[in-house]
Amino acid sequence: MSQSTLDQLLGAVAGADQVLILPHNDPDPDAIASAFGLKKLLNQRTTLPVEIAYQGIIGRAENKALVRYLGRPLRPLTKATLQRAACIALVDTQPGTGNNPLPTDVTPHIVIDHHVWRDETAAAAFYDVRPDFGSTSTIVAEYLQTAGVVPDRMLATALFYGIKTDTMGLVRGATPADVDAFHTLQALTDLNALDEIQRAQVPASYFKGLVTAFQSARIRGPLLTSYLGPMSYPDQAAEIADTLLRLQGTTWVICAGYYEDELVISVRSRARSGGAGQLVRAIVGELGMAGGHGTMAAGHIPLNGADPAALAEELERRALDLLKLDAKVPESPLI
Predict the structure, then answer these.
(1) What is the value of pTM for the model shown?
(2) I need a labelling partner for 231 at 20 to 30 A (CA). Which of 28, 203, 206, 331 fits?
(3) Residue 254 and residue 179 share a domain
C-alpha cells in the first residue's frame, strides 16, 4: 500500500471533531478486529476521539471472548450516538447492504471492506473495497504497516483471529496478502489468549440449537437444509451451517431460523465455483437483504407478521429451483 493511500484515508477525517466506527450488525471477529485496528490507526495518527459502536448482538461464545479480551472496545449503538456522529467509518460492510445501522440518507466518510462492491460506496470521501481479499482485517493490517504502527499483542491477536476465521485458516478465499498478514501477525499473537478465545465455553442453548438443527435437517442430493425456529442469537444459523457443511457428500447447506422479528438465512458451499453469495441473493430476492462470498453468505428478511417456518420453506423451494434439484425427489432426514 502506498503512503498516498494512507494520506487519503487520514485526509477523509481532517476537520472532524470525532469519528464513529461502525462494523456490520452482529459483528464477527473480522469486523471486530477491523474496527479495533482502524481505531488504533486513527489514535496513533490523529488527535481525534474515536468510538466503535455496533447494532445487534454479539452472540457466539468465541466472539464474546474476543471482545472481553480486547477490553470491550465497542459498545451497543444508541440513537443519540448515531445522530451526533458527523464523521462515520464503515468497516467490513458498505452503504446500502442493509446489514449496518447507517441511515440511508447519511454518507459515510470512510468505507473499508472486502465484500462485493456497492455503488453507494462511491459517495464516501474515502473508500477501499477489495472483494478479492479474504478478510477486512488484512486491509487494515496493511494500513497499520504503511503507517509504521506495529500492532501490540492484543491488536495482533484480534487481526490474526479475524483473518483466520474469515478465511478458515487461509483455505477459503485467501490471497497472498492474507497469507502475508496472517504469518506476520502470528508472530505477534498472544497464543494463550487465542486458545482461550477459540475454546470459549458455550451455554446450554448452543447444544439445544444443535439438537434442533440435526432433527430438522433434510438431505436432497448435495443440498442439506435445516430450520432452527427461534434462535438465541442472530448468527446461530451461521454457526450451525458451518457444522452441517462437514457432512460427507454435502456441497450446499442452507440453515434458517428467526431472531426477534427477522428471519436469518445462512448459506455455505463447497462447490468449486463457490456461488454462495449469488445463491442467497437470488433466494432472498425482493424479500430482504442478502450478500456474501463464494463459500459463505447470509440473508435477513423482516417477518412483518409472516410465519417464519412457511417463509423458510419458500426459500428452500427457491433454492431447489436455482440449484436445479428435483423437488419431487424424496428428502432423507439427517438423523
Answers:
(1) 0.94
(2) 331
(3) no
